[in-house]
Predict the 3D structure of the following.
Amino acid sequence: MYTDPLHGTDPAVTTTPQNITAQQREALDSALRVDQAGEVAANWIYKGQLFVLGRDKRAGPLIQEMWDQEKKHLLVMDKLQLQHRIRPTVLSEVAKVAGFGLGAVTALMGKEAAMACTEAVETVIGEHYDDQLKEMESLPHDHPSVPLLKDVVREFRDDELEHLDTAVENFSQRAPAHALLSSMVGVGCKIAIELCKRF
Ligand SMILES: [Fe+2]
Ligand SMILES: [Fe+2]
C-alpha cells in the first residue's frame, strides 16, 4: 500500500493511532526510528559491497538484487516515519558511513566475507523485526495503520531472512575467520540498534 499511489490518501497510510498510551507511543517512536536507521545502513552496506564487487559476475547481481529490496524497505520506512511523526535518528550520517565502510571492508576481504557480513547483519535484523512484531501485538488493532504496520514488518522480516539464506547459499560460512567476523558484525548491529532507538 505504501508504494501504490492508488492508496496514497488511505487513512491506513496517512494517520497515526491517537488512542494509545504514552508508553506505546514511545515504543512505536523508537521502533520506527531504529527501523528507518537500519534500512539506511542496509542500503549503504550493499552500496559499499557493490562498490568493491560490482564487476563480479556472480556476487554483483546478487548484491544488486538485495540492495533493490533494501531501497524499497527504506522508501516505506521513510513514509512510515512521516505518517507516525517520528523524529529520525541524529545518527543517520554515521549509519551511512559505518554501513558503507562495513560493506566495502568485508567485500575487500572477499566474496565470502561480504556474504558473511550479510549473514550476520540479517540474522540480527530478522530477529529484531520478529521481536517488534510481537511487541506490536499490544497496539490497538482498531486503527487501520496498525495491522498494515504489522504486515510491513512481517514482510521485511521475511525479506531479511531471505537475504540471510542467500548469503549462506553463497558460502558465507567459508569466509576467513567466519565466527569472529559474524560475532563482531552482530555485536556492532546490536549496539547500533540500541543507539538509534535513543538518539
Ligand atoms: Fe531491509
Ligand atoms: Fe536486508
Summary: DSSP finds seven helices and no strands in the chain. The CA atoms of residues 34 and 194 lie 8 Å apart.
